Amino acid sequence: MASENGLTKADILSTVQGYSRDYRAGGDNSALERKFERDKDAVRELGIPLETIDSPDRPGDNTALRYLIPKRLYDLPSDIEFSPQEIGLLALAAAVWREGSLSDDSRRALLKLSSRGIEASEPLVGYAPRIRVREAAFAPLQAAQTAKIVVSFPYLKPGESTPRRRTVLPLALVQHEGRWHLYAQDIDAGATRTFLLSRIVATVVQRPDVAAPEIDTTGAVERSQAELAAVSLRNRAVIETRPETDAAMRLGRRAASVENDGARVVLHFTDLDILADELAGYGPEVLVHEPPALRAAVHRRLLQVAAQHASAATRQEGADRG
């Protein structure tokens, strides 16, 4: 960054801290050169623009290539400044992530911000919530989204006994109602689709053999969130809860409206099967009034639980008699 015309590899190896100590003028520097090649990739992964410039008097000669980090591309725009309070808030936002590559990305962002020379406000640096990603599919999907690579995975929809392989180009990963969703271009359908990550039942596989369609990803997160919010707004559930129960407390917090002194709640939901799973878990604490499909789904789950318990009781009774 300090050089207007860049530095050759020999210049860097002989003068830059981290290389110069092991550099041998006129000697074998092959190990140091391999380290330099790895470091070039690491610098670019940090989001730092590293340019390679051909020597005007020795074009095509790799030994004469010059490396340059253009200051105009690395620095933040001149009209963007951060106060100590804003740096503190950004630090807290980065600290929220505690999961693999996400944590690495947040650390890299903080490293770049710290180069601005602004210290965070101490009162802001304290407790921060944590976001974890439990779905194994998240990391490979994020990597494919960044690299704009088509992937495929087996996806099991509710009511189906076997998963179907989907081939998609990931466009955005969004969290909605506490769950991670993939917004992607479905290659076979030729249209965007949203997938729940918890329904991806096996390994996500990259498909370099499938050409990625040219799609403008600008605003993909916002479009996905808007579509999910629209689905949630259309779906309305009316549920009766027993007073002073876990169901009454938890569902009441999320209710769009509450009636009958809190005993009857109206919820909006995105996925009927996910809500049915949750409501069945409350057992006799809830009674579903609407919609009929949700009521039937909860009823089926309760019948399955009753049948499993009856079967287990029968086996135990037979073992006791034996």
TrEMBL record:
<dbReference type="Pfam" id="PF25583">
    <property type="entry name" value="WCX"/>
</dbReference>
<dbReference type="Pfam" id="PF13280">
    <property type="entry name" value="WYL"/>
</dbReference>
<dbReference type="InterPro" id="IPR051534">
    <property type="entry name" value="CBASS_pafABC_assoc_protein"/>
</dbReference>
<dbReference type="InterPro" id="IPR057727">
    <property type="entry name" value="WCX_dom"/>
</dbReference>
<feature type="domain" description="WYL">
    <location>
        <begin position="137"/>
        <end position="201"/>
    </location>
</feature>
<feature type="domain" description="WCX">
    <location>
        <begin position="246"/>
        <end position="305"/>
    </location>
</feature>
<dbReference type="InterPro" id="IPR026881">
    <property type="entry name" value="WYL_dom"/>
</dbReference>
<protein>
    <submittedName>
        <fullName>WYL domain-containing protein</fullName>
    </submittedName>
</protein>
